[in-house]
């Protein structure tokens, strides 16, 4: 399983540990990933995704999974998230046609 957020695409970064004597050694900064069950309002389903804690805060700020996915770029999303986004788009398009 990759160490990459399924919604934001955040992955490991590389930097240095710097000692008191200023010796630099390579290290990896891993993102804080956690499994989360996210509710889609339009689909009425719950999806389990492995996302970063920052992405979870962003979901709360934006107003939910559906709004976040519709505004997200496809390059950042995982294949699972892209499938969910396609379902949400299709449901929104069907609702717009039914209303018109």
From TrEMBL:
The keyword Transmembrane does not apply. GO terms for molecular function: structural constituent of ribosome. Transmembrane segments: none annotated. GO terms for cellular component: cytosolic large ribosomal subunit. One of its GO terms (biological process) is translation. Pfam families: Ribosomal_L28. The keyword Ribosomal protein applies. Keywords: Ribonucleoprotein, Ribosomal protein. PANTHER family: 39S RIBOSOMAL PROTEIN L28, MITOCHONDRIAL (PTHR13528), LARGE RIBOSOMAL SUBUNIT PROTEIN BL28M (PTHR13528:SF2). HAMAP family: Ribosomal_bL28. Belongs to the bacterial ribosomal protein bL28 family. This is Large ribosomal subunit protein bL28. It comes from Caulobacter endophyticus. The lineage of its organism: Bacteria, Pseudomonadati, Pseudomonadota, Alphaproteobacteria, Caulobacterales.
């Amino acid at each position: 399983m990759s160490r990459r957020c399924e919604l934001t695409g955040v992955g490991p970064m590389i930097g240095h540990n710097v000692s008191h004597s200023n010796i630099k050694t390579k290290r990896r900064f891993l993102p804080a990933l956690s499994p989360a069950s996210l509710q889609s309002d339009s689909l009425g389903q719950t999806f389990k995704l492995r996302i970063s804690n920052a992405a979870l805060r962003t979901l709360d700020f934006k107003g939910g999974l559906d709004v976040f996915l519709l505004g997200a770029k496809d390059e950042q999303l995982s294949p699972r998230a892209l499938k969910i986004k396609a379902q949400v788009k299709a449901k929104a398009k069907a609702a717009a046609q039914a209303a018109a």
